[in-house]
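REVIEWER CHECKLIST
Item 1: Sequence provided? yes
Item 2: Single chain? yes
Item 3: Sequence as submitted:
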Amino acid sequence: MNWKFWQRHAAPAIVDASPENPSTLLSNPASWLADLFGGSTDAGVTVTESSSMKTSAVYACVNLIAKTIGSLPLKVYRRKADGESVEVPDTLPYYLLHDEPNPAMTSCVWREFLAANVLLGGNSYAAIGRNQANQVIDLFPVHHNLVTPKLIGGRNKYVVDVGGSKTETIDQSDMIHVPGSMFDGVKGLSIITCAARQAVGLALATEQHGSKLFSNGARLGVVMKHPKTLSRDAQIRLKQQFDQQQGGLSNAFKSMILEEGLDVTNISMTSEDAQFLETRRFQVEDIARFFGVPPHMIGHTDKQTSWGTGVEQNTLGYLIFTVIPWLTRFEQELNRKLFPRSPFYAQFKVQGLMRGDSKARSDYYSSGHQNGWLTTNEIRKAEDLPPVPGGDTLFVQTNLAPMQQLLSGGVPAPGRPRNELAAIEDDWSAIAPKLTWSDRC
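Item 4: Structure as written out by the authors:
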């Protein structure tokens, strides 16, 4: 089992990196290295993966996508020769992917960990543990900061830091690697550091600006005028006394006593300061755009209602254009590493998204049952209910049929059994016999 990777991740050396102790990784540099080589944004704020999570929009987007991927059922199927697929819950790969990939975590937590890594760092890794028979026995996640992918001899190799200045090289067949957007085909790019750094930096800067503004009692500053010339020491002493008595929220709205002709003038708020709240609102939309998340799904409903068909369509777009592509990346990587050239395959069940929507489930089941592609027992199985006798029959509606077929008696008219129609026709013939052509002439 790959316990060493999980234990190594508990205390990465990058945390205490500094110019005096310059041990750091270029894939996620320490703040001093980011400042030295241009990691700071134009807003004057250094943005890393950890600092970006302090922005509510980044945290909400990563949390939403990761939990969506983690909450969906992940099952293993076997494709038969006739093309039919059957679920195989009694196999070890099914248990690893659906329930417990390793003794340290559940499948939901494992997938959330991988999703958060690829969203923030551009890559997610999981070491594949095998027994002597080459069977997969566990899947341990490895933090992306500890892995350096390399292309050697046409195959990807992964150099993993296992602690104590030791590394271990793992072949691509024993490492699950889900990358983000890629330029070189070996390593994915981080959304934060490669695309959204400036947007996140501006969001952090405006948040710091607001915090400092309100820590000063929501006052931008004052100008103090004294009729006499004050010495340098007197200026410093006067400023310190004013800040101590009037600065901060605890001293807001307190009275001031001015002596010796001292005059205090408030600095008016500029248009730029008045617009910083609007800037914060726009940054939420801008960051959500990088992650492909509709703003209303992270609580930003400033410019639209939180109810209605518009929101429903945006939510559907999020599922189709954001969640499904990520699920496809995970599925294809799992299948090619765990089930190479075999009839087995793993697949997320997106129907799990309807788990909390009883109306959507009801409409889905009704459509399937009435149109002949879901049986009663298949519906009951999806709802964790026992099968019933006769529940494996497929039904179709007979409300629509060709008119000629109805006239010829091949299909009964809607809502009337065939024997009832025959009885009505016999009764009508007794009352009004059919006329032949000669009778009419």
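Item 5: Key structural point noted by reviewer: The longest strand covers residues 155-163.
Item 6: Recommendation: ____
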